[in-house]
Amino acid sequence: MNKVFLVGNLTKDPELSTTTNGISVCRFSLAVSRRYVGASGERETDFINIVVWRGQAENCHKYLKKGSKCGIVGTLQTRSYDAQDGSKRYVTEVVADEVEFISTRNSDGSSKQEIVDDVENVTELKPIDDDSLPF
Questions:
Q1: b/e string for 51-90 if b means 16 or more Cβ within 10 A?
Q2: pLDDT by residue (tens digit) across 53-102?
Q3: Nearest-angstrom CA–CA distance, 32 and 2
């Protein structure tokens, strides 16, 4: 069984490209904190490379930015290639099947979660007159 579940924050803006066949692919790195504290007394963080394909790739590029929190469900994949210096390089990445946008960044730098928090702090709500509703 090969199944990966991650929740973390993007380390930089997602990069969108298109294959020669016209298929969209989005790549980004996710910073994921470990559950335990290391010997230095600080929680260590892993930086996981994520690959998203097709329509979901376009959505990730459109709505996610550096610092956005997201959840990933996917599979772990390892591939290799020959570098220009002739050495063999290995890459390990998660191919995302599902991406959940937990928070996104707006153009002004605020997150949707901050807006939700502001809405939840509203205390002066007025009741709706049920007789004026059309249903």
A1: bbeeeebbbbbeebbebbbbebebeeeeeeeeeeeeeeee
A2: 999 999 999 999 999 999 999 999 999 999 999 999 999 999 999 999 99
A3: 19
